[in-house]
# Entry
Amino acid sequence: MSEFKALGEAVTKGDINKAVAETQKAIDAGSGVQAIIDEGLIEAMDEVGDRFSKGIIFVPQMLRSAKTMQECMKLLEPLLKEAEVTTKGKVLIGTVKGDLHDIGKNLVSMMMEGAGFTVTDLGVDVPPEKFVQKAQEVEPDIVAMSALLSTTMPAMPQTIEALEKAGIRDKVQVMIGGAPVTAKYAQEIKADCYAADAGSAVTEAKKLLGIS
Ligand code: B1M
# Structure
């Protein structure tokens, strides 16, 4: 976290004003957006998760750090989207049923938009029937699901099953991701692909649609 030490500390402490100021400072200093996200914000959130696991902090502090990261992302979002404008394909994304974590999903969404995909974001706690209903409406190329809890991962195969029942499973590619999700799990539940992070979500989406 060296270059972004002050930013990381502000995020772990949940000091929104300081974190936003540090983000702006990093942008002004010409630091890459990806580096600010990966080495500043995400590393700090990992530290937050670690402290939560050890019982050093609790849900309110975790929430405050999440809010802090979201405020920093507001400054970075326009820079992420600057890159490309053409539509590469349509992506329907959401965090699965029972799961309220949306920072990673939002990041995937922003990176996809930045790479030229048209993204419909269903938000958090999205039940399988909502994925199906919206997929029928917007006819996406990719249905992308995020889960951060091991207890909500089963909502992924449930959603795939719902797409099958609605007769649209073969019309979409299914991508899954989120901290507890693995490539092996993607194979097990017959998703079309797994992406470990927001950057590889874009690479994998392009591969799925045969775009270089
Ligand atoms: Co939660 N939480 N949380 N939490 N939380 C975790 C996930 C946890 C690992 C913390 C811990 O114990 N170490 C743990 C889960 C354990 C498990 O099941 N394996 C946990 C828990 C237990 C809980 C609660 C149950 C706590 C409680 O109430 N007792 C509760 C559950 C609420 C619910 O969802 N029903 C809960 C609540 C919360 C808050 C609401 C307080 C808050 C979320 C706020 C929000 O999102 N708006 C929160 C937070 C902030 C976290 C941690 C600290 C940070 C998550 C985060 O935003 N990371 C997290 C610990 C951690 O992850 N280190 C933790 C930054 C983000 C950029 O990374 O989301 O992993 P991530 O996204 C990555 C990749 O995973 C990937 O790309 C992103 C970046 O490149 N990715 C995809 C994500 N989705 C993808 C989709 C794709 C492809 C890639 O394709 C479709």
About this structure: The two ends are 33 Å apart (CA to CA). The first strand starts at residue 90 and ends at 95. The first helix runs from residue 5 to 13. Residues 42, 45-46, 48-49, 52-53, 59, 62-63, 66, 98-105, 107-108, 144-146, 148-151, 175-180, 195, 197-198, 201 surround CO-5-methoxybenzimidazolylcobamide (CB under 6 Å).
